[in-house]
Amino acid sequence: MKKNVKLFTSFLALCIAMIACQKDELITESEFGDLKKANLGMIKSYDNSMVLQWNEALSLAVDNKMPAPAESRIYAMVTLAMHDALNNAVPIYETYAKDNQGAYYKDISKKNIYSIANAAVAQAAHDALVALIPAAAGSAETLLNTCLAEIEDSEFKVRGIQIGSDAATEVLAKRQNDVLPAFESYPQGTLPGEYKSTFPFVPPAFPVPSVYGRHWGETEPFGILSGDQFRPEPPYEINSPEYTTDYNEVKSIGSNTSALRTQDQTAMGLFFTENMPSMMNKVARLMAVEEDLDGWETARLFALTHMTVADALISTFDGIYYYNFWRPITAIQEGDLDGNDDTTGDVAWSPVISARPTPPLPSYPSSYAAAGSAGAELFKMFFKKDSKSFSVGSYTLQDSVRSFTAFSLFATEMAESRIYTGHNFRNDNIAGNKMGKEVAKYVFENNLRRL
User: Fold this and answer.
1) Residues 56 and 121 in one domain
2) Which of 38, 32, 450, 58 minimizes the C-alpha distance to 282?
3) Which candidate, 299, 267, 293, places its Cα nearest to that of 394?
4) Which of 250, 315, 246 is nearest to 276 (CA)?
5) Which residue from 5, 393, 338 is spatially nearest to 194, judged by alpha carbons?
6) Are residues 264 and 356 in the same domain?
7) Rounded-to-integer distance, Cα 319 and Cα 304, Å
8) What are phi and psi for residue 405, nearest 5 degrees?
């Protein structure tokens, strides 16, 4: 009898627990049912053509026309404006600047979603792009007029235009206090390992000795907490065997006259001299097409990609000016004076002259390694895979295409390329790779998440 009572009591408790769970599920379904209903089929029915069109316009306006940090900021802001605009039409993901908690979407359907979404994307991209690159105003205005003319006049078109305008305004306002990166004079190092400027330009256009973006690492990031959040450990000591190994490697394989560097390694170095944000944007755009993303997914992919690359560069600039480590050109030309008996100097040594000159900033960690690994890690998390076959071209090595079978292999080549041009030590790459992955993981897990 007691055994039966215990069994009945256990069964009753189980039933109560199940009812409670069902009640919680019903509350959740009731609370978010409208949003789920709005998302059923309707969002998937909206393709990514408008987002891609404005991304291409952005690319034409900005790619390789300025240093990478400035480029990354513009890419991030314009893509975030498009993302916020779409998610204030129908709130599927968290936003960056324009709060979408009060967004009204219950009257949006498959019949009118293109009207409101296309108008919102076009207006947001136009307004942000023109504000950031006034020289692009003419072509942006023409594209906007074309896009809006193709949308049938309706209250949804009007609403979309307003949403897009508001989204761009709020993104611009949120970043209005950014201290833009610029060239400025910089004190020269006097001890082995301390940075000395090698910037090739002369006054009056630039101060001498000059560096770029000295305070960019202090800029408010887009998705991480601060520029020093993932600051790497210090670089190798000049007298360490690890530094000696790195020194000898770049001296032999990164020299302009190197007989050890292969033709493909030279091509790799020139290929990845293109700015990191524009290179990463090409890959993101390719993935959006090949993976058949809808408009909302595509806008989110672009926004996350450029938040990640921008924050990787902010983190890099924090580290390089914090550690102030010299570039290979200085280290090798002064190798007989560095106090390391195992390094032999060469006052005539120079990096690959067909690439860009040595960047006007310290060496550690590598910005290319950080941006490359950050972008690759972001793609891995977004698509839940590393293996992916794709091919991309480069602005800095015309008529050249490189192919990859994984995002991580793309990042590896981007980092290795800096050794082959003679611009960075291998440890710069190691630190940049680690930091880039940490940045990407944080950005992806804490920003623009599904509601």
Assistant:
1) yes
2) 58
3) 267
4) 315
5) 338
6) yes
7) 22
8) -115, 0
Q: Coil, strand or helix: which one is 385?
A: coil
Rounded to an integer, what distance in angstroms lies between the CA atom of residue 326 and that of residue 194?
5
List, in order, residues 6 or more apart from 253 with CB less than 8 Å away. 260, 261, 265, 419, 420
Query: Cβ–Cβ contacts within 10 Å for residue 63, how many?
Result: 18
Exposed / middle / buried, residue 406 (Cβ in 10 Å: 0-12, 13-18, 19+): middle
> Three-state SS for 388?
strand
- 374, 235: one domain: yes
Residue-averaged pLDDT of the chain: 91
**412 lies in a domain?**
yes
The predicted-structure confidence for 317-362, as pLDDT tens digits, reads as follows: 999 999 999 999 999 999 999 999 999 999 999 999 988 889 999 9
Question: Residues 132, 371, 409, CA angle at the centre, nearest 5°?
Answer: 135
Task: Report the CATH number that the domain containing residue 390 is assigned in CATH.
Answer: 1.10.606.20
**How is residue 23 written in tokens?**
């009640």
Q: Rounded to whole angstroms, how far apart are CA atoms 164 and 70?
A: 23
Spatial contact of 207 and 183, defined as CB atoms under 8 Å apart: yes
pLDDT tens track for 194-232: 999 987 765 666 677 889 999 999 999 999 999 999 999
Same domain for 158 and 241, yes or no, is no
- Same-domain status, 153 and 236: no
Q: Are residues 370 and 303 in the same domain?
A: yes
Sign of CA dihedral 217, 219, 223, 229: positive
| Residue 3 included in any domain | no
Is 433 found in the same domain as 374? yes
Distances in Å between the alpha carbon of 62 and those of 205, 277, 286, 387? Answer: 22, 10, 18, 30
CA neighbor of 77 nearest in space, from 143, 124, 136: 124
Give 212's strand partners. 183
> Which is more confidently placed, 33 or 316?
316
Range of the structural domain that residue 274 is part of: 217-446
Last-in-domain residue among 115, 150, 174: 174
The reply to whether 364 and 259 lie within a common domain is: yes
Q: Is 160 exposed, middle or buried (0-12, 13-18, 19+ CB in 10 A)?
A: buried
Q: How many domains does the chain have?
A: 2
Quick check: is 169 in a domain? yes
Report how far residue 21's alpha carbon sits from residue 119's, in angstroms, rounded to the nearest whole number.
Answer: 42
Query: How many residues does the structure list for the chain?
Result: 451
Closest among 184, 83, 196, 71 to 132, alpha carbons compared: 71
Confidence (pTM): 0.91
Residue 192 belongs to a domain: no
